[in-house]
Design brief:
Layout (H helix, E strand, L loop, with lengths): L5 E9 L3 H12 L4 E5 L12 E3 H9 L3 H4 L8 E3 L2 E3 L10 E3 L2 H14 L3 E4 L1 E8 L4 E7 L9 E11 L6 H6 L5 E2 L4 E8 L6 E6 L2 E7 L5 E7 L13 H12 L7 E9 L2 E3 L4 E2 L2 E3 L5 E2 L6 H22 L8 H26 L5 H11 L2 H12 L23 E4 L2 E4 L9 E5 L4 H7 L7 E5 L1 E2 L10 E4 L5 E4 L3 H12 L12 E2 L5
Parallel strand pairs: 1-2, 1-10, 2-7, 10-19, 23-24, 24-28
Antiparallel strand pairs: 3-6, 4-5, 8-9, 9-10, 11-17, 12-15, 12-16, 13-14, 14-15, 17-20, 18-19, 21-22, 21-25, 23-26, 26-27
Helix pairs in contact: 1-4, 1-7, 7-8, 11-12
């Protein structure tokens, strides 16, 4: 038998998809030791999720990753349940952007490993045992894992399941996963060697058809037959089934094509009751299962990771205040519930047969109203998420900080750029030295003080001084010094006993 090695780490992340790798990078940026466990032995070979929305693009910018990614192609017009929807929002990344999942994973894995995260591939998690001070995980080598040890044991202070909708972490840790199973499904295939017209949510008497020619001549087809039950054939969906459904709905024969990837997804809707159970947490599809309408599932998961990473890093470093880690569930569970409700409504509009036509007509009328359009666009883009805040506080508290162009002593930058070190930021646009002095006990690597002025040709900002969390949400703005200190304690723990060696001021551009 192979020798059984042991790995000791602060955080074990299970799953090296985009959510797991985003979380690993956030943890490593926050100073945590992190290991990622992945059952795959190589890179992703399937298309899967490829749409990034505005808030996710902002998060990538906050970490300086867009320069490496480059400017991705625009993803075309948006929709709500198949009805066209303009996704313009108050973000520099309005709309939707097309990035193949394999490229997203490559980008995030490179970032996380450069920061010190370790990715261990070719092992399937089989056991979890929680003690008072740690979680012990056992994983077995997958076939084809090469020289990997047959059994791998990992001891960590915390484990986070980012292992998808069939999450092993969720099952082994006993998370409740209430909701409903799928009753309708959409079949999907990437096919080479077929010539069919592009179809955008084309409704036929017998069903819904979608097709689009992609790079390299590969056509993605999606089809739903009205009234059809969810298939339960063993293994992946067969191309014969996809081709037969496509022909019944559209009349076109694609059976001579070469399938490159096949899957199906239904309108199942589930969400764990708790995102945290002691030392085990869940993020992404492990925490919520929804139909991937409009690319929202991937974006929701990446935003889970951005919320959790800095909090869990502070927890394992010993700098977190009471309740910080519990705020992950308190904030992301309602945010996830809201998206799931949005997706459920879209699934009804998208997959409903003739009985939903009047509803679709009414919805089309509503979407032409500017306030309705803006509301739904903000929800899909993720830019309208606002976490709970004191009712008498500044209107920005709990919301993401709007994008601003700034000038500092070192040159121009943006509000996204000041967040790149992954620390909190006291952003002072009004020159209030009393606030900088109040923040000094937290400028020991937890909070930076950034003095800047907004670009004059831009709209005036809604604040003069704001405390930003590492995920870009506003923790405090334009209040009193005691209120600022209370926010610093809540989000960044107790003040340092030793005053920071410098004033805490830094140039945003230098970050």
């Amino acid at each position: 038998m192979d020798r059984t090695p042991d790995i000791d780490t602060q955080v074990l992340v299970v799953g090296a998809g985009p959510v797991g790798l985003m979380l690993a990078g956030e943890l490593a940026l926050g100073g945590a030791d992190v290991v990622v466990l992945e059952r795959r032995t190589g890179p992703l070979t399937e298309s899967r999720a490829s749409t990034l929305h505005a808030r996710t693009m902002e998060i990538l910018d906050q970490r300086g990753l867009l320069a490496e990614l480059g400017t991705p192609p625009a993803g075309g017009a948006g929709h709500f349940g198949g009805t066209p929807l303009d996704l313009t929002t108050a973000s520099p990344y309005s709309g939707q952007w097309k990035v193949p999942q394999v490229r997203t994973e490559e980008l995030l894995e490179g970032w996380a490993t450069r920061l010190g995260a370790r990715v261990v591939k070719g092992h399937l998690l089989t056991e979890l045992r929680t003690t008072e001070r740690a979680v012990e995980a056992t994983a077995e080598a997958e076939p084809g894992a090469g020289g990997a040890a047959a059994t791998l044991r990992v001891r960590a202070a915390y484990v986070v399941g980012c292992d998808g909708e069939t999450s092993t972490v969720r099952r082994l840790a006993g998370f409740a996963f209430p909701g409903r199973d799928a009753t309708r499904e959409l079949l999907r295939a990437d096919v080479a060697g077929v010539d069919v017209p592009d179809r955008r949510f084309e409704r036929h008497p017998k069903g819904l058809a979608i097709s689009a020619r992609g790079p390299g001549g590969v056509t993605r087809v999606m089809v739903h037959e009205y009234g059809a039950t969810v298939g339960h054939e063993p293994g992946p969906v067969s191309f014969a089934r996809v081709a037969a459904a496509w022909q019944r709905v559209t009349g076109d024969d694609i059976s001579a094509g070469t399938p490159l990837w096949l899957n199906s997804f239904g309108d199942a809707l589930r969400q764990v009751s708790q995102y945290r159970r002691g030392r085990v947490l869940l993020a992404g599809d492990a925490a919520h299962h929804q139909m991937p309408v409009g690319g929202q599932a991937l974006n929701l998961g990446l935003q889970d990771a951005a919320n959790l990473g800095w909090k869990l890093a502070a927890e394992v470093r010993g700098t977190a205040g009471p309740g910080l880690l519990d705020s992950y569930h308190a904030e992301r569970h309602p945010a996830g519930r809201r998206v799931l409700d949005n997706i459920a409504a879209q699934a009804l509009l998208l997959l409903g047969g003739a009985g939903t036509e009047q509803l679709r007509l009414l919805f089309g009328e509503l979407l032409r109203k500017p306030r309705v359009r803006a509301h739904l666009a903000g929800t899909i883009a993720g830019v309208d998420v606002r976490y709970a805040a004191e009712p008498d506080g500044h209107r920005l508290v709990g919301a993401r900080l709007p994008h601003l162009r700034l000038r500092t002593a070192a040159g121009p930058c943006s509000t996204f750029a000041v967040l790149r070190p992954g620390r909190g930021v006291l952003l002072d646009l009004g020159g209030r030295p009393s606030l900088s002095r109040a923040t000094a006990p937290w400028t020991d690597g937890r909070v930076d003080v950034v003095a800047a002025t907004p670009e004059r040709d831009r709209p005036a900002p809604e604040f003069t001084c704001a405390l930003l969390r590492p995920d870009g949400h506003v923790a405090w703005a334009d209040g009193t010094v005691p209120e600022l200190k209370a926010a610093l304690r809540r989000w960044f723990g107790p003040p340092s006993r030793h005053r920071a060696g410098a004033s805490g001021l830094r140039s945003a551009a230098a970050g």
